[in-house]
Specification:
By secondary structure, this protein is of the alpha+beta class. The chain contains 6 helices and 14 strands. The model has no long low-confidence stretch (mean pLDDT about 95).
Length: about 280
């Protein structure tokens, strides 16, 4: 338990610095590839490791979008830019996200997500039921008259596991599960002007080790080895693998997903509208 507390506190300390660094670097005209790589580099410089590729999700894209190595997307004025990053220290993870809308300082979607996060975090302690946390979030969002995304939630974190049970929904529910001391909890509040239900889209750039499998391709075996050892079974970006030519990399990833050696994370997006998010990880005491 001492190891959990010590490593998480270090990850959280690094995350707080990365949070401020990231916010300062979200600017009109910046390529999202440059932004993601700059944030990932900063995490390493501060003594942590990225727990997954930095997500840079714009407008109706809610989650799981990290730029490819040839992504030329740039941030425009009035874009809703969501940055989701994780810092891991010896497998203990701090998961954080924020939203910036350049050109709109007093933006209701962002304020609603941030206030719901702030108010719900006040009640995170041992013995509190998940449904009670969700009730606080729902009340704040109703006060602001904004919708959430019903099929995205906050979550528990475990060592080398970024999405553990139980979830922390942003809607009212009947989860009587009580928070336990020394659990890591990420409250992740989404707000939206869209339908409130994300769907998978493309292109997929994020993958994660699932299990060892026999694969035909030499390059496939190399990818699986990298996923397990270099990336420590946590999510990784296709652009992180520079040792394998692009065509072989695509074929290898496709085969590994088909044989269920890797899990893929397609971008999640609303059919229309814009999305904001606010997220922080805390240790239950």
């Amino acid at each position: 338990m001492e190891q959990l507390v010590e490593n998480f506190k270090k990850a959280q300390s690094i995350a707080e610095k990365v949070f401020e660094f990231s916010k300062k670097n979200v600017k009109v005209g910046v390529r999202i590839l440059d932004l993601a790589e700059k944030i990932e580099k900063k995490i390493f410089e501060l003594g942590g490791k990225p727990a997954w590729p930095v997500n840079v999700c714009i407008n109706n894209v809610a989650a799981h979008y990290t730029p490819s190595s040839n992504d030329e997307t740039v941030i425009k004025e009035n874009d809703y830019v969501k940055i989701d990053f994780g810092v891991q220290v010896n497998g203990y993870i701090s998961d954080n996200a924020f939203t910036v809308c350049l050109g709109k300082e007093d933006e209701k979607l962002i304020k609603a997500a941030e206030e719901a996060l702030k108010e719900s975090l006040k009640e995170v302690k041992e013995g509190v039921k998940i449904k009670e946390i969700s009730e606080i979030i729902a009340n704040v969002l109703e006060k602001f008259e904004v919708k959430t995304i019903r099929n995205l939630t906050g979550h528990t974190l475990e060592r080398y596991n970024q999405h553990a049970w139980p979830p922390i929904p942003n809607v009212r529910n009947d989860l009587n599960i009580k928070l336990e001391k020394n659990q890591l909890i990420a409250i992740e509040v989404f707000t939206t002007t869209g339908p409130g239900w994300v769907k998978e889209s493309a292109p997929t750039e994020i993958f994660q080790f699932k299990q060892r499998k026999q694969v035909r391709w030499k390059d496939g075996r190399k990818i699986l080895e990298l996923a397990e050892k270099k990336f420590e079974r946590l999510p990784f970006a296709k652009r992180w693998i520079k040792e394998i030519p692009p065509i072989s990399l695509d074929l290898g990833l496709k085969e590994l997903v088909e044989v269920e050696a890797l899990t893929e994370f397609p971008p999640l997006k609303e059919d229309y509208g814009v999305v904001a998010v606010a997220e922080k990880t805390v240790l239950v005491v």
